[in-house]
């Protein structure tokens, strides 16, 4: 039910760049951070040109495959330029099998939304937020996760 | 009442302390910046003090490879052309480790600066010490200093990296204009997306 609602919200609010890349506005970040449910949101900010981002993306896909049934929701928020969506982002999603995990952040001025994620974030990519409002969990990491560090971090937060 | 005040002040101290521990090292607006001595593209050491007639400095941590740095490259050239004559030159600093990011090597810096005809100093922060001292985290990352080397603005160049023609707010220019006019900088900190500085793994 919750899943259906979530999808419905997507359909309601979000325009899309093809079915594999719905787009969000900055206020969606606030919605995830304040969601009243028992889901751990693992929200990664990335871009196709960012090599450390690209390097850690397989570990996010793995996290999704392993823990989606344990209410860990992985969302990859793409921060590419708009002009690169068709030529770079959409092919990247297909190539890495990230369908359903990526959303495009349709905001042009980071000064209006970076602080919504975390005031400790300078805006350097990659960055990852782990949040479950109802369990009082909030972490932000301005770094690339190495090896199995991502899974270990999630496990330390999410029993 | 006293108890409430005490609790409140304790809470404030706790909050302040937690910010201290998470805040990255580096400058905040109001700090006095240290000078540096970094190699320019003709092999000469350049410091802030060595730049004649400066009333301030637009220090930009940037690099060759990063798409955001590339998106802002022409705007950085234009900034120097507009403000150097008014005493606010651009000093560009590349802090990336060339072992991790080969396109940001000293040789590649020379190639790019020549190809794009950089009118400003493009310095190589080989030890990454200057980037660390300033607290730069990404490229591009701007630190605007006044004539006494006090940091007056940190952040983005403007509000639209992708499209210069759609820019609505020129954060950096507004700050420089304020300094030239002897006014307070209207917005002293802005957030921007950029490429993480490629730190050497020691």
Task: Give an account of the 3D structure.
The complex is a heterodimer of chains A (159) and B (202). Chain A is built from six helices and seven strands; from the N terminus they run αβαβαβαβαβββα. Chain A is an alpha/beta fold and 159 residues long. Chain A has one domain (24-157): 3-Layer(aba) Sandwich (Glutaredoxin). Residues 7-13 of chain A have low confidence and may be disordered. By secondary structure, chain B is α/β, with parallel strands linked by helices. Chain B has one domain (27-196): Glutaredoxin (3-Layer(aba) Sandwich). Chain B has helices spanning 2-22, 67-83, 106-115, 129-134, 171-180; strands spanning 38-39, 45-46, 56-61, 90-94, 121-124, 138-139, 141-146, 151-155, 194-196. Chain B has a five-stranded mixed β-sheet, with helices on one face. In chain B, strands 1-2 form a two-stranded antiparallel sheet. Chain B has a two-stranded antiparallel sheet with strand order 6-9. Chain B is globular. Residues 13-23 of chain B have low confidence and may be disordered. The chains are: A alpha/beta (159), B alpha/beta (202). Chain A binds chain B through residues 47, 49-50, 52, 79, 81-83, 108-111, 114-115, 120-126, 142, 144, and chain B through 22-24, 66-67, 71, 137-138, 141, 155-156, 159-163, 166, 168-169, 171, 190-197. β5 of chain A pairs parallel with β9 (194-196) of chain B, so a sheet runs across the interface.
User: Percent of residues of chain A in helical segments?
Assistant: 25-40%
Radius of gyration of chain B using CA atoms only: 18 Å
The portion of residues forming beta strands of chain A comes to: 15-25%
* Biggest beta sheet attributes of chain B: 5 strands, mixed
| Total tally of structural domains of chain B | 1
What proportion of the residues of chain B form beta strands (DSSP E)?
A: 15-25%
Strand order, sheet with most strands of chain A = 1-4-3-2-6-7
Which pair has the most extensive contact? Answer: A-B, 23 and 28 residues
Largest sheet of chain A: 6 strands, mixed
What count of structural domains of chain A? 1
Q: Write the CATH architecture name of chain A.
A: 3-Layer(aba) Sandwich
As a whole number of angstroms, the C-alpha radius of gyration of chain A is 15 Å
Specify the CATH class of chain B: Alpha Beta
The span between the termini of chain A is 23 Å
Counting DSSP H or I runs of 4 or more residues, the number of helices of chain B is 5
Q: CATH superfamily of chain B, please?
A: Glutaredoxin
Indicate the overall shape of chain B: globular
């Amino acid at each position: 039910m919750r899943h259906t609602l979530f999808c419905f919200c997507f359909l309601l609010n979000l325009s899309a760049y093809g079915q594999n890349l719905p787009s969000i506005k900055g206020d969606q970040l606030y919605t995830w951070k304040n969601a009243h449910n028992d889901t751990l949101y693992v929200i990664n900010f990335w871009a196709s040109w960012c090599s450390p981002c690209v390097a850690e993306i397989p570990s996010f896909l793995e996290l999704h495959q392993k823990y989606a049934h344990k209410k860990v929701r992985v969302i990859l928020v793409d921060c590419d330029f708009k002009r690169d969506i068709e030529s770079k982002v959409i092919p990247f999603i297909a190539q890495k099998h990230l369908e359903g995990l990526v959303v495009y952040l349709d905001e042009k001025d980071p000064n209006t939304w970076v602080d919504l994620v975390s005031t400790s974030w300078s805006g350097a990519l990659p960055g990852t937020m782990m949040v479950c409002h109802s369990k009082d969990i909030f972490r932000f990491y301005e770094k690339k996760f190495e090896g199995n560090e991502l899974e270990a971090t999630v496990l330390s937060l999410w029993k | 009442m006293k108890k409430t005040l005490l609790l409140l002040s304790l809470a404030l101290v706790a909050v302040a302390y937690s910010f201290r521990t998470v805040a990255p090292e580096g400058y905040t607006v109001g700090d006095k910046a240290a000078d540096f001595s970094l190699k320019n593209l003709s092999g000469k050491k350049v410091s802030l003090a060595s730049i004649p007639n400066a009333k301030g400095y637009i220090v930009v941590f940037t690099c060759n490879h990063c798409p955001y740095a590339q998106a802002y490259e022409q705007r950085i050239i234009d900034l120097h052309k507009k403000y150097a004559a008014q005493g606010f030159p651009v000093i560009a600093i590349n802090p990336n480790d060339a072992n991790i990011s080969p396109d940001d090597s000293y040789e590649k810096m020379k190639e790019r600066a020549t190809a794009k005809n950089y009118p400003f100093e493009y310095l190589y922060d080989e030890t990454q010490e200057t980037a660390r001292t300033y607290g730069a985290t990404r490229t591009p990352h701007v630190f605007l200093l006044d004539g006494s080397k006090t940091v007056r603005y940190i952040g983005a160049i403007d509000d639209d990296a992708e499209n210069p023609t759609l820019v609505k707010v020129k954060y950096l220019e507004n700050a420089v204009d304020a300094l030239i006019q002897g006014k307070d900088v209207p917005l002293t900190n802005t957030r921007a997306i950029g490429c993480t500085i490629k730190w050497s793994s020691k």
